[in-house]
């Protein structure tokens, strides 16, 4: 059931939707109706976790209890934050620390049998968000039910989006729209995400897994295609999951923030992180970069804070030095871009189309290059792969048809989004940057052509879906 593509997951969503719909229809009091629905969603969320492993539910329950108790006593909030971080460090990084220390002193390393609890990376960040917001008096202290539901809500549990506590709790305490008006847009967003995951990302995984497993067997050109393929795979996989989570939440009456907005058309790395994993970026900005000092303590400290923030963001993704390098590269790139902007005293503006195309290509290639470290099992494996690309050697060349299909579809949808944004006047609204809005149009399913588009998407998924069982990439984090 941990997969959002399983029949058991669909059954869980269906039951939660039906019961919430009945409660909001039958109970006239808004608070009572919301409470009844929240209980259903909380039970569903814990059932979702227990179905995978009951021990995971105990960990989540313990962290929830700590978060709730510490928030009630303002003086204990720092303790709650430390305990959340300690829980994450123990389950996710204990073996990493032991291995790193063993290598330094030259001893053998025996991994401890520690299982990573489902969704702990995301619900610990949510717990910290709630505690900090209570400390800053942005959110009132909540009862145990609201805190538990905020941390465990199953659509966002395993891979986000990371919704702010105040926004979620406000919706949880109100009468939500649950019914045809929530189901129609929600199921469309879900199906679009499902298409990106099963048809586009999972078919790319066949090629990516093969190339990264045996890089020495392939020529430089195919290795380069593997880099492009993984850049597209992780985008389509993770944005697909985010869309599916947003769609399920919408069906159940919650509005989640979007997590991606066409990141590969970014003109620079700074813009990239305003478009990629947007809820994590804003979380790191508000709860890490600004507390570190942000840009308030001089230029040198600003650049250092950017690098530290991205390195910590890299470590959050996984217990491996490859993630540290990935975060370090992005942190340095952000600092260099900020320094360049300060030196040239330039501002984001519309450039000649040639300059725009070049900046987009350079940003994409840098991002794709960094993904090599993200995808590789070790720094040595990443270096082997990079060396293979720049050796310009011959070898097995295997252009993969689905890669070019994905490129055509992504480019075509991006162009369509740019045209749609221009018609909506977004460029005039955001006149200081070339803004393109990449979210989906929602069709009226009561109209003939709306139903046609929807069922065509469903049909394409049924016909073209890869059934090899490729898991969600961010489900491992």
TL;DR?
The protein has 477 residues and is mainly α. The protein folds into two domains: 7-178, no CATH class; 183-267 and 348-476, no CATH class.
Layout of secondary structure:
Elements: H1 7-26, H2 30-52, H3 54-72, H4 77-105, H5 120-135, H6 144-152, H7 165-172, H8 180-213, H9 220-251, H10 269-275, H11 278-289, H12 299-317, H13 321-344, H14 353-375, H15 379-390, H16 401-423, H17 426-429, H18 448-464
Helix pairs in contact: 1-2, 2-3, 2-6, 3-4, 3-5, 3-6, 4-5, 5-6, 8-9, 8-18, 9-14, 9-15, 11-12, 12-13, 13-14
Please give a handful of descriptors for the protein shown.
globular; 2 domains; 18 helices; 477 residues
Residue fraction in strands: under 5%
- Give the CA-based shape: globular
**Compute the gyration radius: what is it?**
23 Å
Low-confidence region ranges: 426-433
Distance between the termini: 17 Å
Mean pLDDT: 89
Helical amount: 55-70%
Main sheet: strands, sense, barrel: none
- Helix and strand succession? HHHHHHHHHHHHHHHHHH
Number of strands: 0
What is the structural class? mainly alpha
Number of helices: 18
Total of domains = 2
């Amino acid at each position: 059931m941990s997969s959002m593509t399983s029949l058991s997951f669909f059954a869980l969503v269906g039951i939660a939707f039906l019961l919430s719909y009945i409660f909001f229809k039958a109970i006239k009091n808004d608070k009572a109706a919301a409470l009844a629905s929240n209980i259903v969603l909380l039970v569903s969320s814990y059932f979702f976790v227990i179905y995978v492993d009951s021990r995971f539910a105990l960990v989540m329950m313990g962290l929830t209890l700590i978060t709730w108790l510490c928030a009630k006593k303002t003086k204990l909030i720092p303790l709650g934050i430390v305990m959340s971080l300690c829980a994450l460090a123990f389950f996710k990084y204990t073996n990493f620390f032991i291995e790193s220390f063993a290598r330094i002193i030259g001893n053998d390393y025996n991994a401890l049998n520690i299982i990573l609890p489902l969704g702990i990376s995301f619900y610990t960040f949510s717990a910290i968000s709630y505690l900090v917001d209570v400390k800053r008096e942005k959110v009132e202290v909540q009862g145990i039910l609201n805190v538990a539901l905020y941390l465990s809500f199953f659509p966002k549990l395993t891979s986000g989006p990371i919704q702010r506590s105040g926004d979620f709790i406000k919706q949880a305490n109100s009468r939500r729209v649950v019914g045809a008006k929530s189901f129609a847009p929600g199921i469309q967003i879900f199906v679009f995400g499902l298409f990106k995951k099963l048809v586009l990302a999972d078919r790319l995984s066949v090629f990516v897994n093969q190339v990264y497993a045996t890089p020495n067997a392939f020529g430089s050109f195919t290795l380069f295609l593997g880099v492009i393929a993984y850049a597209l795979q992780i985008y389509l996989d993770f944005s697909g999951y985010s869309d599916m989570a947003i769609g399920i939440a919408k069906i159940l009456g919650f509005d989640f923030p979007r997590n991606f907005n066409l990141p590969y058309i970014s003109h620079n790395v700074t813009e990239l992180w305003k478009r990629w994993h947007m809820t994590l970026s804003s979380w790191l900005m508000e709860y890490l970069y600004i507390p570190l000092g942000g840009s308030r303590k001089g230029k040198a400290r600003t650049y250092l804070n950017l690098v530290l923030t991205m390195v910590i963001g890299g470590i959050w993704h996984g217990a491996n030095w490859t993630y540290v390098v990935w975060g370090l590269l992005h942190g340095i790139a952000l600092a260099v871009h900020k320094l360049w902007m300060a030196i040239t005293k330039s501002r984001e503006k519309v450039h000649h189309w040639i300059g725009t195309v070049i900046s987009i290509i350079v940003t994409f290639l840098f991002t794709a290059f960094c993904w090599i470290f993200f995808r590789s099992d070790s720094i040595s494996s990443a270096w082997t792969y990079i060396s293979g690309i720049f050796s310009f050697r011959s070898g097995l060349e295997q252009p993969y048809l689905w890669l070019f299909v994905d490129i055509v579809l992504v480019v075509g949808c991006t162009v369509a989004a740019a045209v749609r944004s221009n018609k909506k006047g977004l460029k005039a609204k955001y006149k200081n940057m070339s803004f393109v809005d990449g979210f989906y149009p929602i069709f009226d399913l009561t109209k003939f052509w709306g139903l046609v588009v929807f069922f065509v998407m469903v049909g394409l998924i049924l016909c073209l879906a890869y059934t090899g069982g490729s898991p969600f990439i961010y489900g491992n984090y």
